[in-house]
Amino acid sequence: MNGLVRMEGIDKRFPGVHALKSVDFDLRAGEVHALMGENGAGKSTLMKCLSGVYQPDAGRILIDGQAVALPTPKAAQDLGIGIIHQELALMRDLTVAQNIWIGREPRLSFGRIDEARQNAEAAAILSRMNLGIDPRTPVSRLTIAHQQMVEIAKALSYRSRVLIMDEPTAALNDAEIAELFAIIARLRAEGVGIIYISHKMDEIRRISDRVTVMRDGAHVGTVAAAETPIARIIAMMVGRELTDEKAAIPDLSAAETALEVRDLSRGPELRGISFSLRRGEILGFAGLMGAGRTELARAIFGAEPADAGRILVHGREVSIRSPADAVREGIGYLSEDRKHYGLALGMDLRANIAMASLPRHADAIGRIDEQALGRIARDYIERLRIRTPGDWQEVRLLSGGNQQKVVIAKWLLRDCDILIFDEPTRGIDVGAKAEIYRLLGDLAAGGKAIIVISSELPEVLRLSHRIAVMCEGRLTGILPGGASQEAIMELATQREGAAA
Amino acid sequence: MSEATARPSGTADKGPARAGGAYQKLLAFAGLMVLVAGFSLASPSFLRTDNIISILQATSVNGVLAVGVTLIIITGGIDLSIGTLMTFCAVVAGVVLTWMGAPLPLGVLAAIATGALVGLVSGTLVARAKIPPFIATLGMMLVLKGLSLIVTGTKPIYFNDTEGYTAISQGSVVGRLIPQFPLPNGVLVLFAVAGAVAWILGRTVLGRYTFALGSNEEAVRLSGVDTGRWKMAIYALSGGIVGIAGLLISSRLNSAQPALGLGYELEAIAAVVIGGTSLSGGRGTVLGTVIGALIMSVLTNGLRVLSVAPEWQTVVTGVIIIAAVYADQLRRRGAA
Where in the numbering of this chain does the ABC transporter domain appear (chain A) (predicted)? Predict the structure, then answer.
């Protein structure tokens, strides 16, 4: 066996959390080893131990059979361990080559940078990856996919023999994913060991040799990817078998119309969108990237108000010029980017849950009723099953699924009865996903009117009572729940005339 | 100081989030104690009652300014106009009391209202016109400096005719009760302002949103909160507190000195930073700021008692600021 990396008995504790419980992991040269597990299972922590960000409390790490110390990220880098972060860490205004060589630029006399050599060596790496990018291009002009590949090129420039990829396809479309996989295949053939973190089952099956599953900080098992059914992997992750349910479609013909949108427009992004939404209904929005779904949500919510069109809430026309207006009408928005748009990460659960309704829980001089808020927060923690040691915990320490539940609690506390979920399970693992789905179903059954925007068709199909499809800023059709994926894709690609 | 950040609410005094904050507050306080111990060993006169009182008196103006600007800094903003605003408020008090002959309470009210109004204007520029706080308040700083000179014709306004004006800062309610310890009223004002602001930050909606704005303003806006309105309220509150500082300094000088003011803003910001408040917002405490202001005046006073030249006092203060922030960085790295 060609053991490149061995991690033995890795143990790590944080205040209140036993993050890694004596975990073993190994990586061979020339293999793609998928690392899976729910959020909070300990995947990232384990990888941070391998890349020198965290120091394990116990256990040892061997590279080529030699025990090594990794006190800093630099030490890991020097040993050939490269990590591609989920959030890209490139300097947007520098060129591709400058980004790759940042910090160790080839020098000429008097401290001048040898730009020619820098560009040539960058070009060599890019061509090894079979990428046709000019190394002199500023990174800001590249697509997200190509930026990601520049990150990989950068890692390779350190002569990395181990590459850690954390959800590399989260922001990529199918063609870009194929390009990425081709690069991964080349690197594997060269003997690079790749640790691949992802939640997407089909990807894991496509590219990985072995799969290691973690749960609650412990190693559950390592299996051969090709021979293990997906259901088995999922069962390992969640500790039980999941059934693939479809939404039961309730009869809503008698239900009140909660939201009606008529001819909503803004610039080229939104063009004459009209639809209505009943209480108790989940309306899914499908479409390709850039179809205008997030823009529609932000327009309804007043984050970027529409130029034209009308919005009616419970049959009454309302003017929504800001999120404050929307919230007053009982509309809540859950952004796909919770960390930037949904949460104050450095504050505790209680403050975040109360964020939209603080004045309601204060007396005439603005004094907050902490006792009541504490009770409310603990009540939501229980009801939504938020996993946290307490309501005083900073939300940055929660996993993605639990952070999402905090945002949901925020809107429930504010009595919002129209909820717009933008990619509700992005970055959330399979087990927590099922929980979020169930929660959405419960909310609808309780009379909330719900919009779900999702780029994952199975998710739209699983949740929606009706499915609205957008393409290039237009609503191209509304299908009944349970429609075929083909019918949705046809509407999603229904371009206007010969344009575009 | 992450104490108020992690738990601005603070009913459940437990959990890991709390431990780091208590430690940091201890650190600033320990620094102050080390300074006091060092100076008292070096000079027997340092710990004399009159010297301690003089240190506290010297802290009052900078302390009040620093507490006021702490609010703005926690939102992630900055206010460079507080020094010249302080002077402008003093000038307004002079105009109302000396030139117009109004009764004392009216002058006090005018100074505080002026501060709050100017704060509201700065807040509006920042929140509604979207001018970066640094620029908006830099402009305001110059405008106010000029206005003070214009209104007064560059001459000081004296408060000789206003009975009791000097007592605002110089009188001593405490001294009447405990003659051995004539603590000046200005120091009581500092304690009162600090207590009030700490209460606002810890217990009220305004305080919670102050931290939230500094933590993630966009998330607060997308929670349906009118962030602009709260920001304006915070700048106005801070401005009102600067008005109080204007009363204190003019009471101590028995005059409104129109040329004074520039430089006070940086001293106040230095005190805030020494006290552990993060300039990037979201974190900070009033107690830390007060300790920071005390550290600065203890330094100035102690070095003077040791007959160190004023030039060197400035150098030492600069070094202390950098050292304090560095110590905080080290702590944070350790905690991460």
Answer: 5-241, 247-497
Position A463 pLDDT exceeds 70: yes
Quickly count: other Cβ atoms within 10 Å of residue A487's Cβ. Answer: 14
The answer to ipTM > 0.85 is: no
Query: Which of A324, A347, A367 lies at the smallest CB-CB distance from B212?
Result: A347
Say if residues A311 and A318 touch (Cβ distance below 8 Å): yes
- For A:414-443, CB contacts with B below 8 A are 414
CATH match for B45-335 among 3.40.710, 1.10.3470, 3.30.390, 3.40.1350: 1.10.3470
Point out the residue among A347, A367, A389 whose CB comes nearest to the CB of B211.
A347
Say how far apart CA A203 and CA A209 lie, in whole Å: 11
What the block records as the tokens of B274 is 């020494």
Report d(CA A343, CA B222) in Å as an integer.
Answer: 9
The dihedral sign for the CA sequence B8, B60, B244, B76: negative
Residues of A in contact with B9 (CB under 8 A): 348, 350-351, 368, 370, 373-374
pLDDT 10s digits, A343-380: 999 899 999 999 999 999 999 999 999 999 999 999 99
For B123-154, the pLDDT digits (tens) are 999 999 999 999 999 999 999 999 999 999 99
- Closest Cα in chain A, distance from residue B51 (Å): 39
pTM attached to this predicted model: 0.76
Is A16 an 8 Å CB contact of chain B?
yes
- Identify the CATH number of the domain in which residue A31 sits: 3.40.50.300
| Structural domain span for residue A272 | 257-492
- State how far residue A304 is from chain B, nearest Cα, in angstroms: 11
